[in-house]
Amino acid sequence: MKKLNVTTALIPILLLTLVMPSAFAAVLPSGDEIAHNINARDEGLSVSRTVLMEMTDKRGKQRIRKTRGFRKYFGDEKRTAIYYLTPKNIKDTAFMTYDYADASVDDDQWLYLPAMRKVRRISASDRGDYFLGTDFTYEEIKQETRVSIEDYSRKTIGKEIIDGHSTFIAESIPVDKKTAKELGHSKVTQWIDAEIWMIRKAEFDSLRGKPLKTIYTREIKQVQEIWTAHLLEVKNHKTGHTTKFIFSEVDYQTPISDDLFTERALRRGL
Amino acid sequence: MTTCLQSGRCGVVYNKPSRALLSVCIALVSTTATAAIDSVISIDNEWAYSTTEKKTHKFETTIQPEIEIDLGRDTQLTAIGRIRNDTKNNIDANKSTDSELRELYIETTIGRSFLTLGKQQIVWGESDGLKVLDVVNPQEWREFILDDFDESRIPLWTVNAEVPINDFTLQLLWIPDQTYHKFAEGNDLYTFTSPQLIPHPPPGIAVVMAAEERPNNTFQDADWGARLSTFWNGWDLTFNYLYHFDDNPVLYRQLSLTPSGPVATITPRYERSHLIGTTFSNAFGSLTLRGEVGYSLDRYISTNAISDNDGVIKTNELAYVIGLDWFGFSDTLLSAQIFQSYLSNNDAGMLRDNRETTTTFLARRNFINETLTTELLWIHNTDLNDGIARLKVSYQICDEITAGVGADIFYGNQLGLFGQFKDRDQLITSIEVHF
Predict the structure, then answer these.
(1) Do B52 and B434 meet the contact criterion of CB atoms below 8 Å apart?
(2) How far apart are the C-alpha atoms of B366 and A129, rounded to whole Å?
């Protein structure tokens, strides 16, 4: 029997090691491809829905808000309006944003506070701030289940089964420190459904690189042939606070009046 | 119901058009077969303790029931009442309890237009805590400026139509309600004493207050207003016009010589004014710029000059507020405003200077998912170096209950709007319940 030379034996292993990453990467879409697929997913030209917002602090104290939300595309421009229906102390509060296709143009945002009876213009640059006491940021409220292309550099780092669904794991890093500061995090790791391009899970690291929060997207069902998340849950690892958005009465087909996305409508309410 | 005060400064008046509008509201409700009803009752208790006088300023409980009835066909009726009881009788020395129907209005749509009919508040302007264009409704000065404007604004019977025209919205107002500012008086805690506000005759001249002359013709004396608003290139813009009676009575003075000596007869009379104005706001990165400008024709300022025939000077007034809100820190708002008012006339003896400047600074920060809010509001008049600092911490115990503590600190010269209350510093605790 011919003796196996150790060096000779290691060569194929070394070659395999060198080749493997690129071979593995070849079967995975790039981070940017995944991001474009996420954003290409049909979300309808407009949608109306009821959103129950459940906010629970680390001691279990719960606050619940019922809202009615509307989103509509005006060409490439996306307009969103959220009207608070309950509880009594914040009823009639309303939020509206105009999200422009040109990423270099800041969004326009308004908040109607019934106690002041005024619609206030609010800055859109504090997009990493938490939205009205929830654990979702203004940016996440605006993006819904989509992602910002220009804010991150991305890479795909693997595949994993989540809740029985095959997902790609993508790592997104804000393009610069300023963007990271604006967004309020230094890294996002996302698990994206490989079939329907819906983010099923996203883990956020704080600006100091520590676990910040995790968002779970659940109860994904088709409504009028559009894949729709019916439960978004976020756990804030820093505060122990959690927020659930429970969606119901989702409707992509009933026309929504353009007038609903005006200051006048914010003041008047639903 | 009429609650006119001796001084001629009146509170709530139901006149003919008010009754007519009320009848329309009732008729609309009575024709409704079925209606969805939503109601809320808010109970607010405030205890204010004077740090200078070492006594309770007020222990006041306010109950505010509100009901909304969905009448179908995009029509809704809203009624808001208010019952207030102050066990200390300091705020209003004459009565400890008052109750009123604050608002009662029907909202409906006609095509794309909104119509709001009834007793309501109309809020114009972009400024916080200062008023240039927010003068459609008069104000109750019972607690000076310490009440939220939402509470101190006096709702008026109004026909309010909002009509979309292309990219604009035209708001048209008809206000046949002759209700004006309601001031504290006599021994009330916040009665104005500053000679910059109240004319003081020279020694030796007796003063006689004549009966107030107030407008009383429903149609001829109604206020009219229009506002055109639009969103243009990132700017929120409005153009406003109000033809109204100034809510401050003009104190006409007539000097006469009687056997017992010289007498000044003061006759409070309300005068018409035209107000033309504009508002603007836009966001630039972390900054929001907002402002409002108003030009009033035919304002009347009291004068102490004995040589003046009627004791008032007719003038025009230009007033503006520019504000900057900065959202650079998380969950934090820093806001600064400057208010200036210029009179076109500068006669000697006028009670106020022809230029007034007031600045405000607001710092607000939210904690614990917006359940805890801290706030500092500082208002400073640069002409007389007087002002007020207001501190407030509020905590939302649950969705229904919010508790708060705070302090109001006045400072400055007794001549000033704020300085006149410099012995009214107070600590406050509050609890609000909504159910």
Answers:
(1) no
(2) 11
Asked if B162 has any chain A CB less than 8 Å from its own CB, the reply is yes
Q: What does DSSP say about strands A108-113 and A118-122: parallel, antiparallel, or unpaired?
A: antiparallel
Q: Which helix (H) or strand (E) holds B175?
A: strand B168-175
Look at residues A193, A123, A117 and name the one whose alpha carbon lies nearest to residue B128. Answer: A117
3-state helix, strand, coil in chain B (%, to 5): 5, 55, 40
- Cβ contacts (< 8 Å) between A109 and chain B: which residues? 283
Instruction: Establish if A196 belongs to a structural domain.
Output: yes
Q: List, for residues B85-144, the tens digit of each pLDDT value.
A: 999 888 888 888 999 999 999 999 999 999 999 999 999 999 998 999 999 999 999 999
Extract the tokens encoding B288.
């929001």
Q: Let me know if residue A23 belongs to a domain.
A: no
Tracing tokens 């040589």 back to the chain, one arrives at B307
The CA distance from B410 to A158, in Å, is: 64
Contact status, residue B7 vs residue B184, Cβ threshold 8 Å: no
Instruction: Give the count of beta carbons closer than 10 Å to the beta carbon of residue B171.
Output: 20
Residue type, B16: K
Taking Cα atoms as reference points, which of B208, B205, B180, B183 lies closest to residue B194? B183
Residues of chain A with Cβ-Cβ distance to B169 below 8 Å are 262-264
Domain range holding A141?
30-268
Is residue A164 a part of any domain in this protein? yes
Beta bridge partners of A219: none
Whole domain around residue B357: which residue ranges? Answer: 16-434
> Is B39 domain-assigned?
yes
Torsion over CA: B88, B90, B93, B98 (sign): negative
Structural domain includes residue A2: no
What is the tally of structural domains in chain A? 1
Query: What distance in Å separates the CA atoms of residue A233 and residue A235, rounded to the nearest whole number?
Result: 7
- The closest of A99, A98, A101 to A76, measured between CA atoms, is A101
CB contact under 8 A, B327 and A126: yes
Residue A235 CB coordination number (10 Å): 18
* B231: chain A residues, CB-CB within 8 Å: 108, 263
Cβ of A135 within 8 Å of Cβ of B369? The answer is: yes
Give me the number of domains chain B comprises. Answer: 1
For A90-144, the pLDDT digits (tens) are 999 999 999 998 888 889 999 999 999 999 999 987 789 999 999 999 999 999 8
Q: Which single residue is written with the structure tokens 């206030």?
A: A120
Question: Looking at residue B202, which CATH number applies to its domain?
Answer: 2.40.160.10
> 């056997």: which residue's tokens?
B259
Q: What pTM value is reported for the model?
A: 0.88
Q: Is residue B9 part of a domain?
A: no
Tokens representing residue B310 in the block: 């009627």
Are A135 and B285 a contacting pair at CB < 8 A?
Answer: no
CATH number of the domain enclosing A65 = 2.50.20.10
Would you say residue B7 lies in a domain? Answer: no
Residue B5 lies in a domain: no
Whole-number pLDDT of residue B352: 87
- B336-353 burial, b if ≥16 CB within 10 A, otherwise e? ebbbbbbbeeeeeebbbe
CB neighbour list of residue A234: distance below 8 Å, 6 or more residues apart:
A134, A135, A136, A213, A214, A215, A216, A242, A243, A244
Contacts of A89 in chain B (CB under 8 A): 42, 399-400, 402, 432, 434
